[in-house]
Task: structure prediction
Amino acid sequence: MGQQETAKQIWDYLTSRGWTKQSVAALLGNMQSESSIIADRWESDIVGNMSGGYGLVQWTPATKYIDWAKSNGLVYQDVISQCKRLEWEVANSQQFYNPNMTFAAFTRSTQSPEELANIFIKYYERPLNPNQPARGIQARYWYDLFQNSTGGSGVSSWTWPFTKPYTGVIYLDGQQFGNTSVKRGRGYFHDGFDFDSSVYGPDILAVSGGEVIYTGVMGDGLGSVIVLSIPPYQVMYQEFSQSMSDIFVSVGQKVTKGQRIGQLNGGTHLHLGITQKNWRAALSSWDVDDGSWLNPIDVIQKEMNNSQEEKGEIEMILYKVTDSKSKMNGSIWLFNGEQLTRLDGTSAAKLGQSLKNVDINQAEMSSFKNIGIRTVGDFQY
Ligand SMILES: [Zn+2]
Result:
């Protein structure tokens, strides 16, 4: 599992357990320095050294956590097991010692990710040098990346057509996409997916940002129809009512992901169809499986997963290495959200005047590699 996936797993679990986004971001900013957010991480990579640190927050000695996990029947290498340990510490006032704030209050705090990252290092991690502002920068990174995500759907630019997500429940054969047991026209092909109105609705949502290219009430059993252009797709909503008054958008209008575009009214279901062709041309293949229509469930799931990989917008960050033991001491780096670039010579000297100095050690530099950031220039360590 990659660093971002692990971070998202921790984010989803702890926010679902009542931690604020700011407190989880602060935790992740610290974990990034402690373990590169790798659950099965031994201190200095000395595997099995029970007197050293272990895990996402580097519990020390390792036995403190591992013995607890084993006695609770948990797999100690597991990310969620380690989250459960944190919850146990919150419930039992362990590990976090702050005269002004309990661990429980920390998990409910809406102070900034930077402030909470500093509180966490000072009162939970308690290293020899608690002055490590890089952890605050990292906390901000995770906060910005995940803050608009909702449970399970990541930072996706796509969503399900209802506020209730697709449940994965096996629907009646005739409601599935593809060849079914129900006779239709020239065969048994069903060109979309029927979302049952007893389960979903009534609000019907745009599955992603796009433009309205058709609205109307059509014959041939189509009923109310809205078609959105969401390149490379055209997405057709049909059969959800028999009236224009259940359609809340008009042709030419731009819509955003999750925008309410209509409502289920009187019909038994919303039929959702997705094609990469012109929708009117594709309609001539409504009863033939010739590739004109795609499985809407597959397309939505794929697009939701794809867009989760996209990086959030990140401001440019300049780093200066101030680690006297590092070969890179004094070097200046620009991080633009994707790429870490070493700046040298006059350009660096100029930028250096407005530089926000941060203390960043080599382990933290290497954690950028772990999240897939390409580095340019001399980056030996
Ligand atoms: Zn249908």
